[in-house]
Amino acid sequence: MVPVVEHGTRRRRARRRRVLWGGGEVLVTVGVVLLLLVVHQLWWTNREAKRGAERKVEALEREWGSGAAGSPDVPSGSGTASTAPSARPGRTGTATTATPRRPYTTTRTVRADDSRAYAVLTIPRLHLRVPVAEGVGKQDVLNKGYVGHYPGTQQPGRAGNFALAGHRNTHGEPFRYLPRLRPGDTVQVETRTATYTYAVDKILPQTSPRDSGVLRPVPRSAVRPAYGYTDPGYYLTLTTCTPEFTSRYRLVVWGKLLSMRPRA
User: Fold this and answer.
1) Which of 168, 171, 192, 250 is catalytic?
2) Quick check: is 101 catalytic?
3) How far is CA 176 from CA 88, 92, 246, in A?
4) Nearest alpha carbon to residue 220 among 61, 81, 46
């Protein structure tokens, strides 16, 4: 006997096949879109930000070398900070800390909210050379691959705390390898008129994003008081997110000023 298949059963099976096929297409499309977003975030933003940061460093060097008028030496904002942190080979050896007899100052200033790059940060151990701009806004500074200066903290070479922030991942990720720094490693900050050399002194592996103590003129963690300083000095603070690909905590690296060399 030949089995009889009703037309209604065939239609139901056909509908199920269409639903399954359509659902599969939707899942594949969503997967492709998510993959493209990941590629854009982890590769394209890094590529574009790094290239933009490299071009800015080259532009600053050309500007300083030519002596042409351009971005002022350092922005004007200084004082006590009230904001909290955001967002390899070549060991240099142990360095001794020396306090300059006369901190460098400048009369050329810009608005404290100006986000233009005005300095270059160099970290030999990390093979890093990146622009420094005023502010820590993502759109105007950090997402360009720049390192941002916390408004309200001091400027390079001045007594107090010169505090910077940078992305750990994506958008150029200048501070991705910050945990590789060790006490004694050198960090240089170049401006139009001088080069300031700091020596890494202390590292705070993890603290709260709201730990504003690390940005004070005499930096000391308000969350982990064992980390930080008690005496005034010439400090450098570098902050970034930790662990990688999260923004749950902050990693902090502190340095002390070793020397100031005027540009020729």
Assistant:
1) 250
2) no
3) 12, 20, 12
4) 81
| Rounded CA separation 70/89 (Å) | 35
Supply φ then ψ for residue 260, to 5 degrees: -130, 130
pLDDT tens-digit profile of 88-137?
A: 333 333 333 343 333 333 333 444 445 789 999 999 999 999 999 999 99
The residues pairing with 158 across neighbouring beta strands, listed in sequence order, are none
Is 125 among the catalytic positions?
no
Helices (H), 40-154: 45-66
Mean predicted lDDT score pLDDT of the chain: 81
Tokens representing 261 are 């060399």
| β-bridge partners, 131 | 120
Q: Which of 186, 171, 161 is nearest to 239 (CA)?
A: 161
Residue 100: phi, psi to the nearest 5?
Answer: -60, 145
Q: Which pair of structure tokens corresponds to residue 48?
A: 């574009």
Please give the model's pTM, rounded to 2 decimal places: 0.75
**237: Cα separation from own chain's centroid:** 12
Name the helix (H) or strand (E) containing 34: helix 7-39
Q: Annotated catalytic, 250?
A: yes
- Residue 203 CA to chain centroid, in angstroms? 16
6 vs 224: CA distance, rounded Å: 75
Task: Name the active-site residue from 168, 192, 216, 241.
Answer: 241
In sequence order, the 6+-apart residues with CB closer than 8 A to the CB of 247 are 86, 87, 209, 241
Query: Are 163 and 239 spatial neighbours (Cβ–Cβ below 8 Å)?
Result: yes
DSSP letter for each residue of 157-174: TSSEEEEEE--SSSTT-T
Structural domains of the chain ordered from first start: 1-264 (2.40.260.10)
Exactly one of 116, 125, 158, 167 is catalytic; name it: 167
